[in-house]
Amino acid sequence: MGTVTRGTTNPNRLRRCDRWLAGPQAWRLRAAAHPPVVVDLGYGASPVTAVELLARLRRVRSDVQVVGIEISPERVAAALPLAAPGLSFVRGGFEVPVPGQVDIVRAFNVLRQYDEADVPVAWSRVCERLSADGLFVDGTCDELGRLATWVALDRSGPLSLTVSFRLAGLQTPSTIAERLPKALIHRNVPGERVHEFLAALDQAWAQASPHASYGSRQRFIQVAAQLREAGWPLLDGPKRWRLGELTVAWGAVAPADLSQTR
């Protein structure tokens, strides 16, 4: 299920999401009674992101199994020489053709290349394949991984939106709008909740400018604190904020026709 995408990628491009999976979401891997199965869905022309994902998640569970899935048979064939214990590659799409249920599915810069109308169907298809504590991450990032966003979903639907910045040299947080996931990128217009969120982020960034003298991390921590005080339902804390990362409940940013909440 799906179509062949451009497939461009770079080493270390998905480090921000991987760091989140191995951090706040690591409990999902630890809770698995069996060797956890993690899928890199649509890894692209190079399997490097699957190789990196295995190395990062092995720090959480040494028995983790990573499966790279691509719809292009040529890309699967090119990746097979890198297959090793804990790492395999198969052809497929959003149906996630692996035995049993999976614990994490990470799809980055995949649905970005589809129509917005295709998103709910793809989300539903992948979430059907998740284990009880499983997670699906639909994300987008720039070419070097300095700006990244992702929606996290479980079997009940969307849970949250995470935005992650390289803080050095950041001018305005709303720069990340061009890297929003497909479900939100066309909704950054007045009247939509994600537009309000990015506007609030920019406003807090401007108001926190006096903290810049203490460094960009301290400024961003102040930004997050201001957003929480203003009522935005942030799901993380200073430990993540200092990394340039914010996670907000999905209901605070969801479009009306994709507003499943938990």
List the helices and strands and how they pair.
Elements: H1 15-21, H2 26-31, E1 37-41, H3 48-57, E2 65-70, H4 73-79, E3 87-91, E4 102-108, H5 119-127, E5 130-141, E6 147-154, E7 157-165, H6 182-185, H7 193-207, H8 216-229, H9 238-241, E8 245-249
Parallel strand pairs: 1-2, 1-4, 2-3, 4-5
Antiparallel strand pairs: 5-6, 6-7, 7-8
Write a brief structural summary.
The chain is of the alpha/beta class and 262 residues long.
Distinct helical segment count: 9
Largest sheet: 8 strands, mixed
CATH hierarchy: architecture of the largest domain: 3-Layer(aba) Sandwich
Low-confidence stretches: none
Work out the radius of gyration.
18 Å
Task: Kindly report how far apart the N and C termini lie.
Answer: 27 Å
CATH superfamily of the largest domain: Vaccinia Virus protein VP39
Strand content: 15-25%
Oligomeric state of shown chains: single chain
Protein name: Methyltransferase family protein
InterPro entries: SAM-dependent_MTases_sf
Organism: Rudaeicoccus suwonensis
What does this structure look like?
The protein has nine helices and eight strands. The chain is an alpha/beta fold and 262 residues long. It has two domains: 151 residues, Vaccinia Virus protein VP39 (Rossmann fold, 3-Layer(aba) Sandwich), CATH 3.40.50; 73 residues, no CATH class. Strand 6 and strand 7 form a beta hairpin. Helix 1 packs parallel to helix 3 and helix 7 packs across helix 8. It starts with 14 loop residues before the first helix and ends in a 13-residue tail after the last strand. The model has no long low-confidence stretch (mean pLDDT 94).
